[in-house]
Design a protein that fits this description.
With 45 residues, the protein is mainly alpha-helical. The chain has one domain (2-43). The chain is built from two helices and no strands. The protein has helices at 2-17, 28-43. The longest helix is centred in the N-terminal third of the chain and has 16 residues, at 2-17.
Length: 45
C-alpha cells in the first residue's frame, strides 16, 4: 500500500515537476510545452 502511494507521488508529481539537467534545468512538463510550441510555430506558415 505504501509502496503504491510512494510510486504514485513520484510518477504523478515529483518526476514531472523536478528540474532535469539534461533538459537545461527545465521540468519534463516545461520541456514538452516549449518543444510543442516551437514545433507548432515551425509548421505554421
Amino acid at each position: 500500500m505504501y509502496t503504491l502511494a510512494v510510486f504514485e507521488f513520484i510518477e504523478g508529481w515529483y518526476n514531472p515537476s523536478r528540474l532535469h539537467s539534461a533538459l537545461c534545468y527545465q521540468s519534463p512538463n516545461q520541456y514538452e510545452r516549449r518543444n510543442l510550441h516551437h514545433h507548432i510555430q515551425r509548421l505554421d506558415p
